[in-house]
Amino acid sequence: MPRSLAPTANPSATLLERIARLERRLERESQARREAEMIAERETLNLFRQREQMRVLSDLAIEANKSEDLEHVLRVALERICVFTGWPVGHVQFVERRPDGTRRLRPSEIWRIASTIDAAPVIAATQALEFEEGRGLPGLVLAQARALWAKGQNNPAFPRSRAGRASGLAAAVALPVMVGDEVAAIIEFGQAVARDPGPDTLQFLDQIGAILGRAVERNRAATAAALAKQDLERLLHAAESASRAKTQLLAVTSHEVRTPLNAVLGLAEALAVTVLDVEQRDHLDGIRRSGGMLLRLLNAVMDFARVESGVVAVAQTEFDLVQMTRDVFDLWRTPASIRGLSLTLDVSALPAPHRIISDPGKIEQTLTNLISNAVKFTPAGGAIHVRVSPSVGTADRMLVEVSDTGEGIAADDRDQLFMPFQQARLGREIGGAGLGLAICAANIQALGGEIGCDSEAESLAAGSCRFWFDFPAEPARVTSEPAPAASMPALALRILAAEDNPANQRVLQLLLSQVGLEALIVDDGLAAVEAVQQEPFDLILMDANMPRMDGVSATQAIRALSTKACLTPIVMVTANVFEDDLVRYHEAGVDGVLAKPIIVSELFGILAAVQEMAAAR
After folding, report:
1. Sign (positive or negative) of CA dihedral 384, 385, 391, 397
2. Do residue 386 and residue 502 come from a single domain?
3. Residue that terminates a domain, selected from 475, 506, 525
4. Residue-range definition of the domain harbouring residue 397
5. What is the count of structural domains for the chain?
6. Domain end: 454, 475, 496, which one?
7. Strands 317-320 and 539-543, how do they pair?
8. Which parts of the chain have pLDDT scores under 50?
9. Is the bond preceding residue 472 a cis peptide, omega within 30 degrees?
């Protein structure tokens, strides 16, 4: 067919097709653009939500770390989560463990309720129910230890669904507060519109639960610390009560022992100025030495009460170390002989006399304890050797050694010998309190010295034992003995003595008579107050414990007088000489304290000082 005769396309139809294709293309592009916009909007929203989630997590982490108030942290968490999610109701329940090991939930008073919600029905239902593992949404979260979502429905597994609907709630979300692997609390939220939060939000809630778990853990630690502090305070109170009881016992014991000992030593001193034959003088010297040792032992026992606190008083007194050693040695001659022991003393490295300045009571007590132990633990036929010499060839430190041929002491036992109430095997078998060597160690430590034990017995086989101690010993500046009463000048003092014990009254009169004095004796503090208002005195010697009025009250009454009698020197003569006693005496207004048993040189020193004061007036 000729080309000119072929049919031609419909121009209108072609144009329409092209337009249709273009419209379809434009629609596809528009749809793609809308989808891209939706994707961009969704991603922007997701980024915004993720940023807000991070902000919530950060804020709660900071709050959980800085606040010590767990309830405050939980309330902040409820507020932030409800604002972020739009959920109107939030509540906290704590996990408790029953004695049988099962767990239950205890509703708290921590709620967050929006003003648009009447939460009374759900609150009442929550308070009335006890959720266990697997019961209700909180119980399911407790059992599974992860955040969950549940819609309200008529289901026995969700016993608050009706109360939730009555409060306008359609669904609930709950998260566990985790301390390690343990669920410590459940936080639940109510939704007004049932909407599955999705796995991302549930994971976000689990992260919150882990953060809040740190606050719970810290609260537990603080609670445990507070309880421990209460226990410590209770134990401290009990210890202080026991210490006060111990101090009171020591005070009573000290007074009861010192009172008769004062009479013994005072009468011995009075007897010493009478005419005696050689044997009587020897017996009297033994009484005086033994009484002096007993007094120092009593002082040391009281000092041991201060060992635990690290406060041990140290006296700096001039004395003859050689003579003191011989006195202690002589006391143990007879006990050693009775047990069939050889007892020897070597002081050849020191001149006699050898006067030093230190604490004779602590040295004497330590030496006495060591010799006593040697006598106790050395078998019959054995030997004990005591040696005193300069330490390491120096003149300002002394070394005292007590050696015996006993069983010896194992190395393990030696490590704890000087600890209170610790004993070596042999000591436990023989018996004893285990305090003697502890007192020795406290004495020597207070002096600035060292104490130890050497033994050839590294096992429990036979061997020898050497106890030793060394201490600083300053050479005495004065080498003469204190002047006896007979060498003192005559005194002319008017003395009032308040003392209720007849034996101590007699001792005072006998001691004062040695320097030509006689005191007016009254039986109690009230009589002393009356006496000073009737006639003047140069000195008042006041006992602390007396009937009707004690020495402290009598001193206060005398100091309160409006006459010159209020200025009379008062010296408390007492067996109660603990630190708190001394403070109490001085606060009452005494001028000095003379401890019982009375040391004669101290009494005469007080009399001489008062005589000098009286002469100056």
Report:
1. positive
2. no
3. 475
4. 315-475
5. 4
6. 475
7. unpaired
8. 1, 421, 424, 426-433, 457-462, 479-480, 482
9. no
